[in-house]
Design brief:
Layout: H1 6-64, H2 68-76, E1 84-91, E2 96-101, E3 117-121, E4 124-133, E5 136-146, H3 149-199, H4 213-309, H5 316-344, E6 353-355, H6 357-367, E7 377-379, E8 385-387, H7 389-407, E9 416-423, E10 426-433, H8 465-475, E11 479-485, E12 489-497, H9 500-506
Parallel strand pairs: 7-9
Antiparallel strand pairs: 1-2, 1-5, 3-4, 4-5, 6-8, 9-10, 10-12, 11-12
Helix pairs in contact: 1-2, 1-3, 4-5, 6-7, 7-8
């Protein structure tokens, strides 16, 4: 079967040559047109500006001596410039002093001059130029001229079309002759390739007729046929080995699927066990809370009743014992409340809404027993947050309560500062005090439950507050850390994502 691909290949070569020629021609024409239009614009605006400056200098004395006739004669010189449509000279107060219009142009002049500047209105260029003499503004020159940019563009379009047609005709004639030299030997190779494909006869070889790139193509084509003939035999041998490998891989994939299914089943079982354990732990927490609260209330109540009923019969030590019993019962109740609040943090969902952190911090400060109006407490401008306001309120209450409590030992010198800043994708909040501080060697225990760096006799507390703070911050995708030095106070820093995207990425 004879292969006839000459028409398609020739058309492709001719198309490539014509497209290349057209592209190069368009690039050259566009570059030339853009350069000429820019040069025209610069030279024309410079010429108009110069003309305005000359008119201003020539008319400065006329304005100074109120000689409108001289100014009008200066403007009449513009008749030698046929592109000038109209011109006018205004006084410093904006009154028309002298004017000129091209013959046949009956348009009116602006009532008042504008500030120095130039603008293009369609095919016209309008210029305002101040007349200044010895740093004194005497008036304004107004010019309106033809702006033939559009006409020049159309002229270039016509020239470009004619040049393109001529260049494409020349390129077509040359490409028709040149493509024959290239396509003839290539089509001969294509014919042999088609016969090899149809007859599966890899012993066929193409005839090498030249030593150029086409001859190299023929030599490479013949080598390829020899390599194909050699590898065909090797391929048949490797197919059998490949079939065995496919069978083994299929068995391995089936085993992997079985193991994955078994693993998923184990994960489901473990998840169910953890959920059951959480439910049991929650039930246990509420049960312990209820069972402990009643005895504690009884202890506190009976101690109070005993102190009131037997008050006259009790000495000072007995009263102190009863006060200690009541205080310990109340402290145990607070500890139970803190533990329940800590356990509930992992179950309640986080409801994120825009939060005014200044209002939240000031409300928490009042609840903690302080006030921004006090001399030793200051709250700076805090960036807003996108978070759960109830949870963040607890964070501010705990941090500010600690700051006020541990700085109270400084008396009148006590100081608590709250500040914040937005830094990229996070908002940073800082609570700083000049209280007792702590040793940074024990900082790893700071956010643990029941971990206290000061004794109960020195400062009251349950040791759960900072653990609650850290857990709330972590649930918002943020982090908290502290810096301190004994006797010099402590600084707690919180970072929270300040965008919805950042919070979702860390959730």
């Amino acid at each position: 079967m004879k292969l006839d691909l000459s028409s398609s290949l020739r058309l492709k070569l001719i198309g490539v040559i014509l497209l290349t020629t057209l592209t190069a021609l368009i690039v050259a024409l566009v570059a030339m047109v853009v350069y000429d239009l820019r040069a025209y614009h610069r030279s024309w605006t410079a010429d108009v500006t110069t003309q305005a400056e000359l008119l201003g200098r020539m008319s400065a004395s006329a304005i100074a001596f109120d000689d409108a006739q001289v100014a009008k004669e200066n403007l009449e010189l513009l008749r030698l410039r046929p592109h000038m449509q109209a011109a006018a000279i205004y006084t410093a107060r904006g009154a028309m002093f002298a004017s000129y219009t091209r013959a046949g142009d009956a348009r009116s002049f602006p009532k008042l001059p504008e500030a120095d500047g130039m603008r293009i209105e369609g095919q016209e260029l309008v210029l305002y130029k101040r007349i200044v003499n010895d740093k004194e503004i005497l008036g304004t020159v107004y010019l309106r001229t033809d702006y033939e940019m559009l006409n020049r563009i159309w002229d270039y379009v016509g020239i470009a079309l004619v040049a393109t047609v001529i260049a494409m005709l020349v390129a077509l004639l040359m490409s028709t002759h040149l493509q024959r030299i290239v396509t003839k030997p290539v089509l001969a190779i294509a014919g042999i390739a088609r016969e090899v494909v149809e007859q599966k006869d890899y012993s066929r070889r193409a005839e090498k007729t030249s030593g150029d790139e086409v001859g190299l193509l023929v030599h490479s084509f013949n080598d390829m046929l020899g390599e194909i003939e050699r590898r065909t035999g090797e391929l048949e041998v490797s197919n059998d080995a490949l079939e065995r490998q496919v069978t083994e891989r299929t068995r391995a994939e089936q085993e992997i699927l079985r193991l994955n299914a078994e693993l998923e089943d184990r994960v489901r079982q473990r998840t169910a066990q953890l959920e059951a354990a959480n439910r049991e732990l929650e039930a246990f927490s509420f049960s312990v809370s209820h069972d402990l609260r009643a005895p504690l209330r009884h202890i506190d109540g009976y101690a109070h009743m005993l102190k009131e009923d037997a008050g006259p019969q009790l000495d000072d030590d007995m009263r102190r014992y009863l006060d200690t019993i009541g205080e310990s019962a109340r402290r145990m109740g607070v500890l139970i409340d803190d533990l329940l609040a800590f356990s509930r943090l992992g179950r309640n969902p986080v409801s994120r809404v825009p939060v005014d952190m200044n209002a939240l911090a000031e409300r928490a400060l009042r609840e903690a027993g302080g006030s921004e109006g006090e001399a030793h407490v200051s709250v700076g401008t805090l960036p807003p947050a996108f978070a759960d306001p109830l949870l963040l309120h607890q964070v501010w209450v705990n941090l500010l309560s600690n700051a006020l409590k541990y700085s109270a030992t400084r008396g009148a010198e006590a100081r608590v500062d709250v500040s914040g800043e937005a830094d990229g994708a996070v908002s940073r909040y800082v609570v700083k005090d000049n209280g007792v501080g702590f040793d940074m060697r024990y900082a790893d225990k700071l956010f643990g439950v029941f971990q206290r760096l000061h004794s109960q006799d020195e400062f009251e507390g349950t040791g759960v507050g900072l653990a609650i703070v850290q857990r709330i911050v972590n649930r918002h995708g943020g982090r908290i850390w502290a810096q301190a030095e004994p006797g010099l106070g402590a600084t707690f820093t919180i970072e929270l994502p300040n965008t919805v995207t950042a919070m979702e990425a860390t959730a």
